[in-house]
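Reminder to self: tokens first, then the designed residues, so the page reads top to bottom the way the pipeline ran.
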């Protein structure tokens, strides 16, 4: 199978956006971490507080309007790659509502 040289797919870029009372966007290592800590936070009470603390420990906080490339996505969110800035090349999972 031959591939034509110079034939590249255009890269569609997106940006990360804050929602609600957020000041930055949490970037999780993977979707499993996102689901785990989101469920804990929604439980409320002590488990909710543990989920909130755990989320802060396992995520990196990304600035609003950071440009990203979507690697893959589903109903919960997307695996993204940061395409500019100091964290260029970093990948992780973001919630659906934080992707524009």
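Designed residues (100 positions):
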């Amino acid at each position: 199978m031959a591939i034509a040289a110079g034939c590249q797919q255009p890269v569609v870029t997106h940006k990360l956006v804050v929602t609600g009372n957020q000041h930055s966007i949490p970037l999780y290592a993977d979707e499993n971490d996102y689901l785990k800590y989101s469920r804990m936070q929604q439980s409320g009470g002590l488990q909710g507080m543990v989920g909130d603390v755990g989320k802060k420990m396992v995520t990196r906080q990304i600035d609003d309007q950071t440009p990203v490339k979507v690697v893959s996505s589903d109903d919960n969110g997307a695996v993204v790659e940061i395409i500019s800035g100091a964290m260029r090349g970093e990948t992780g999972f973001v919630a659906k509502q934080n992707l524009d």
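The two ends are 36 Å apart (CA to CA).
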